[in-house]
């Protein structure tokens, strides 16, 4: 470990047993990215999130929201109406993360053409060795 | 989709069929994060990467490097010595991404205490419903 890589916080994400490694693991999910990005401009209901995140199953959405709640990034509010209304919003910590994850989302959109091109090149060179 | 969320590049990571969504999918891996972060200060050999990334299996390291190569983020160089020496380095596109991913790694280290605390709280409140 070179000194430049040492965390000023005493945590080291390269170490599998470090708590920060498990944070990185939690963040390594496209649904975590997208739920956090979708919530960054304000609270949403379950159905609104489901519509925004094309292709997410109800089970996966619930699971993602539970993980984000457990980790203190999302807060759930239940309104005692009939039928009950449930809304989700980012906590302060979640807001803090949202800016970063949104940059990753932006990067993905901005560089999708470069990566498509690289994939096409790799497929050509490897005669179908790589799945696109 | 509200206008603020519209990508200026015509790509939309919220759409499952969009190329940028598959980029987000590729990035949603702790090993992709860590390999890209580890390479950001210069080229490394396979064994150097394996030592830096605690807990990565040889198979997972190879698989991660192949994906990054396929997507144009990492370049592999083979030196014709005996035994052959193989080195990996970030391409320009990979360097461009590395800054962002390193911020995520830093965030994980900086906020690991907050997230540990939230997890402990959730475990307490839910009487063991959540795995820490």
TrEMBL record, chains A, B:
InterPro entries: ArsR-like_HTH, HTH_HxlR, WH-like_DNA-bd_sf, WH_DNA-bd_sf. Coiled coil: none annotated. Residues 18-116 form the HTH hxlR-type domain. One of its GO terms (biological process) is regulation of DNA-templated transcription. It comes from the Bacteria. Keywords: DNA-binding, Transcription, Transcription regulation. GO terms for molecular function: DNA binding. Pfam families: HxlR (PF01638). This is DNA-binding HxlR family transcriptional regulator. It comes from Mesorhizobium sangaii.
